[in-house]
Amino acid sequence: MSTDSGLLAPTWAGTPAAAATSDEAWLQAMVDVEAALARAQARLGVIPDSAAKAISAVSANQLDVVSLAVASRGAANPVVAFVPALMKLVPADVAEYVHRGSTSQDILDSATMLVVQRVRALLLADLRRCAAALAGLCVQHRTTLIAGRTLSQHAVPTTFGLKAAGWLSLVLDSIDRLESLVLPAELAGAAGTLAAYVEYGRLSEVQAGVELIAPFAEELGLAEPVGPWHTARTPIMDVGNALQFVAGALGKIGIDVQVLSRTEIGEVAEPAADGRGASSAMPQKRNPVLATLIVTAARQVPAQVSVLAQSMVAEDERPAGAWHAEWQTLREALRLVGGSAFTAAELLEGLEVFPDRMAANLARSDGAIVSERLNVALAPVLGKAVAKKLLGEASREAAASGKALREVLVAMIEVDLPWDDLLDPAQYIGDAPALVDRVLQRYQG
After folding, report:
1. pLDDT higher than 70, residue 277
2. From the candidates 128, 286, 318, 357, which is the catalytic residue?
């Protein structure tokens, strides 16, 4: 059971990302790094194979995570307390081979990349679920009419398929950014020179400085770093930037769903479930809680990534405070984005769409939503500036009087135009269906 349940973080509480970023998960990653280091050193002949096997047999379940957390205050990082605890779990003649030549930052940075790699796999799986659901909405609603809205007001007609295609583009962009992330191992030694690794290699009459980097990264399944990145925090910042993009992309979807599910709009609804969306005081409510969880993450992650950005200003070969500020910040960003993607998949796979409601809202302006088209039609007859001014006056009079725009225009000007066609929203969606098809082609590869 995790020591951090997420009581105040419902976006990620109980999701796969919560388990993948728990104290126990991070501790297991640290164990995995120490085991990978031992195996890599054994491959080069620095330590015996039997020692590497004994170290690799240890599980984080054998360690007291709470005690380690408290003990970590003594050195301002958890590795210093972790290493002697790990040494006690292996045979006495193996203990001397634990953490041989290593430094705290090598272990924790590499463990961080392992955790990121594991969370990324969860994220990509959920984002692909989102993409599949959105592709289905694109196909189903390719020509379903809906009011396009700009600055919260009706603008011109569009299709719900195109709106879904915009969401799909963001999800595909998110997948691309996560897939392109390079997650390197960290192996550099106390001040980035690999000095202790080299010295232990000499004791065993082998070269085990830079030669150790490739097998270590291979054992972890991480990228091989070119050089030390103790204070060159590109890998962390790349992860932060990718997480911020994913959070924002899903946040855009979430906030659109919130708007479209407003009582007075009612064009979509979240998938129903027992107890979901309930209010403690108002029994009639069906709150868009899934979208709310997604938007919550989108509003928090940028602040966390800003801490990662500030931590790039890291003095010397290891900073006092900048590196330390990354840990919890990055973990919370991983949790929030992981929870957001998991929630978004559930939302989009069960999203209810109401075309009749979309059509009713589209008709509320009595033709004003196609004013742009009327302007194009009237410009050759009246002149562009005159036509625009006339339509503005007509729209205001229609809104004030409750009359249809066509009625007002016919009374204001005597122009023979195909009014029925010009005022039909279905005939003014431009190339929306073709644009949907282009996004679908990208999705289909």
Report:
1. no
2. 318
